[in-house]
Amino acid sequence: MATTSDIRNGLCIRHNHDIYKIIEFLHVKPGKGPAFVRTKLRSVTTGKVLDNTFSAGHKIEEVRVETHKFQFLYQEGDIYHFMNVEDYNQIGLLEAALDNPKLIKEGEVVTVLINTEDQAPLSVEMPAHVILEVTHTEPGVKGNTATNATKPATVETGAEVNVPLFINEGDKIKIETEKGTYKERVKE
User: Fold this and answer.
1) Listed residues 75, 110, 125: the one ending a domain
2) Are residues 118 and 69 part of one domain?
3) Most-buried pick from 46, 116, 142, 182 (CB within 10 A)?
């Protein structure tokens, strides 16, 4: 059994008869009263996000996980198919297990968290950034750059990202996967 002092981002815990992954946490020591830990948890089975507060020293049940590298093969409905890069075993995961499924393209290598008790895949960790090609965007209007103006652009995976006006169709852009935001244009 772990305590609230062991809480960190990415930790998987058993809470309310489900397994949750800690997305954010904050240790709070108010001037009056006992300390506590405010957390944001994501269910690895449903993908729902839950805010929860643990009192300091509260016992939490940690779920032991292993990480394995998997390559994304294809999507079929809301099931995403991956292949283990070491032993070539294939698994299918529900869309809810992925943090930002619209940003994953075929051939991308991701990290899959696997529960050591029953070897069940829990969630998928995407790389911090992905590089995708812009397939559709409206042309930028010249002279409309006084403010930090952006326009919507569709990338090769079908996701829509707001980009600066100078981005054109065919450009490759780097996207931050955690927030799904434009980072920079990538030169070939």
Assistant:
1) 125
2) yes
3) 182
Number of domains in the chain: 3
Q: Of all residues in the chain, what percent carry a pLDDT higher than 70?
A: 95
Residue with tokens 């930028």: 140
Please report, to the nearest 10 degrees, the dihedral formed by the alpha carbons of residues 75, 79, 80, 85 taken in order: -120
- 100, amino acid identity: N
Looking at the structure, do residues 31 and 51 belong to the same domain, yes or no? yes
Q: How far apart are CA 101 and CA 108, in angstroms?
A: 12
140-173 pLDDT, tens digit each: 766 665 667 788 889 988 889 988 888 888 889 9
